[in-house]
Design a protein that fits this description.
The complex is a heterodimer of chains A (about 180) and B (about 375). Chain A has a 6-stranded mixed sheet with strand order 2-3-1-4-5-6, sandwiched between helices. Chain A has a single domain, classed as P-loop containing nucleotide triphosphate hydrolases (Rossmann fold, 3-Layer(aba) Sandwich). Chain A contains 6 helices and 6 strands; from the N terminus they run H-E-H-E-E-E-H-E-H-H-E-H. In chain A, a hairpin with a 2-residue loop joins strand 2 and strand 3. With about 180 residues, chain A is α/β, with parallel strands linked by helices. By secondary structure, chain B is of the alpha/beta class. Chain B has 2 domains: about 100 residues, Methane Monooxygenase Hydroxylase, Chain G, domain 1, CATH 1.20.58.1250; about 200 residues, Pectate Lyase C-like. In chain B, strand 13 and strand 14 form a beta hairpin. The chains are: A alpha/beta (about 180), B alpha/beta (about 375).
């Protein structure tokens, strides 16, 4: 019985998840991270390389590697991928789709849930999450045999709208998938 | 104490202690769970093995690249021939067609799994090319299925069952025409407001009172662009020999591809990609960045029009931050000054630019 209690204790400590956030430049990744952490978003310079942040969510702790360029092969064994999309940059949605397809092929991320943040919804003329899902052809993901939990959420890092909704979703999703052991 | 020990060692079923009983129950449940899991694992491996032996007589582990490659080529050929067959003899029976397609897709996934299982001994180049071949197969299967399977516009029932994971998009899927090639969805994005494909013109846009969030200027040659008022985002692509005078942009400006241009712009964030031989007069709240850019020069913002002060204030850009001189070159990571950009010498700078009446030209003061 001693061993069991030790294992239980370790499991409790383990409620930390790694989140990988990627997206094209100018899609607002740093802003999203800072906004959700409650930091000042008014003087953000474009990021070179990557940031790592730890976020506490309802008494749960998370580390958040945050990588600005998808080209970097610095993938971690993340349980969640966040992909930030600039909903107002219509021209580069194709690039975005290409990069997403590459990301989905990445073996080390094959079991991870995917949350797509359709950012910049506050800008007039931005595409809605539904339209973005169409452009990125997200339904095709369900046709493949490897099932992946995914969701797209419209948000605005500028106003903070929709961010919590997205984070709530993946915390619930991961909690139901991984921490099922009581 | 002695009682408990007795119970543990001799006859656990007759343990008198209450907590002991519940512990026993838990233990039994645990054992059962483990047994179940073991059983399913066994079954899985059995089915996998039988599937492998169905498709070919050789064992699933090869340990030799050439034999594996030849096996892979065989399976690939057979799948290709099945796809071709489906294409040549279209059956009117939709259920039969569907089962055909399903079985082809299943065998493609089996192939993929096979590659994954054996990837530990294959050279990485081979793995990559095999995966490429598999994705090609998938692509051709998808195009085939989109050709053969008619539109499934009005089938609601099995969709509801299938789409549990993303229920928000049920309605979308019905709208999407399935005859489109799956790789390139025929969804045209609406164009954002902007100036496009112009040569030798003076283009003026006044944003005051309009509800424009983003603005695009692209494919301009020898033009002068005047943007009066405040927008949220500005995109500029493929400009040649242009002069861009812009009011404050409250979110970000993305410039990609410009040559021999003059930009007078203000923004929260400015990103400059693939620009040659251009001058920038900036006011920017964070550090501007350049990438794949050569021979650009920077100077402070020098634009004025009626009411620019209020616009700058509302965009949070009324203060000169001095960041126009703190350019980050993402293609130059050394500590020394990047050769790609420089500060524009003061006597080369243009004076204060005043843009006012759209009918009059920009005038120097």
């Amino acid at each position: 019985m001693g061993l069991l209690s030790i294992i239980r204790k370790i499991k409790k400590k383990e409620k930390e998840m790694r989140i990988l956030m990627v997206g094209l430049d100018n899609s607002g990744k740093t802003t999203i991270v800072l906004k959700i952490n409650g930091e000042d978003t008014s003087v953000i310079s474009p990021t070179l390389g990557f940031n790592i942040k730890t976020i506490t969510y309802q008494k749960k702790k998370k580390t958040k590697p945050h990588i600005p360029f998808i080209g970097d092969k610095q993938f971690f064994n993340a349980v969640v991928n966040l992909m930030a999309v600039d909903s107002s940059d219509l021209r580069r949605l194709d690039d975005c789709k290409m990069e997403l397809d590459n990301l989905l092929k990445e073996e080390r991320l094959s079991g991870a849930s995917l949350l797509i943040l359709a950012n910049k919804q506050d800008i007039k003329g931005a595409l809605s999450p539904k339209e973005i899902a169409k452009v990125l052809n997200l339904e095709a993901m369900d046709k493949t045999r490897v099932t992946r939990h995914w969701r797209i959420v419209g948000c605005s890092a500028y106003t903070g709208e929709g961010l919590l909704e997205g984070f709530d979703w993946f915390v619930q999703d991961i909690a139901s998938r991984i921490y099922v052991l009581d | 104490m002695a009682d408990e020990e007795d119970a543990l060692s001799s006859n656990p079923n007759e343990a008198p202690n209450h907590s002991e009983e519940s512990r026993q129950r838990k233990h039994a449940a645990l054992l059962e769970r483990l047994a179940n899991r073991h059983q399913t694992r066994l079954e899985n491996s059995l089915t996998r093995r039988s599937a492998d032996s169905d498709s070919s007589s050789s064992s699933p582990s090869f340990e030799s690249t050439s034999s594996f490659l030849s096996r892979f080529a065989d399976s690939k050929r057979s799948i290709e021939s099945r796809i071709a067959q489906c294409r040549l003899t279209p059956t009117s029976e939709s259920t039969q067609l569907k089962s055909n397609l399903d079985s082809i897709s299943a065998s493609i996934s089996d192939l993929e799994k096979l590659v994954a299982e054996n990837s530990y001994f294959l050279p990485s180049y081979e793995v990559r090319s095999l995966l490429k071949a598999i994705s090609d197969l998938k692509q051709s299967l998808e195009s085939l299925s989109s050709e053969l399977v008619p539109k499934k516009k009005f089938i609601f029932k099995n969709k509801a069952a299938k789409k549990e994971k993303a229920p928000i998009f049920d309605s979308m899927k019905e709208k999407e025409p399935e005859t489109d090639k799956p790789a390139k969805v025929g969804f045209t994005v609406p164009e954002s407001p902007g100036f496009r494909n112009k040569t030798g013109e003076v283009l003026v846009r006044e944003f005051k009172g309009s509800e424009i969030g983003e603005f695009t200027i692209s494919d301009l040659d020898s033009c002068e662009v005047r943007l009066i008022g405040c927008v949220r985002a500005l995109f500029a692509h493929r400009l040649r020999n242009c002069r861009i005078f812009g009011g404050p942009v409250s979110a970000s400006i993305l410039i990609e591809g410009a040559e021999d241009c003059v930009f007078v712009i203000a923004s929260h964030q400015i990103r400059i990609h693939h620009v040659k031989a251009s001058d920038f007069y900036l006011r920017v709240r964070s550090r501007p960045i350049i990438e794949d850019t050569t021979n650009v020069r920077f100077a402070p913002y020098c634009l004025s029009y009626e009411g620019i002060d209020e616009d700058l204030k509302s965009a949070g850009l009324n203060e000169e931050t001095g960041n126009w001189a703190h350019v980050d070159d993402f293609g130059w990571l050394r500590a020394v000054q990047s050769p790609n950009w420089s500060i524009l010498p003061e006597n080369d700078r243009i004076g204060l630019i005043k843009i006012s009446d759209p009918n009059k030209g920009a005038e120097k003061i």
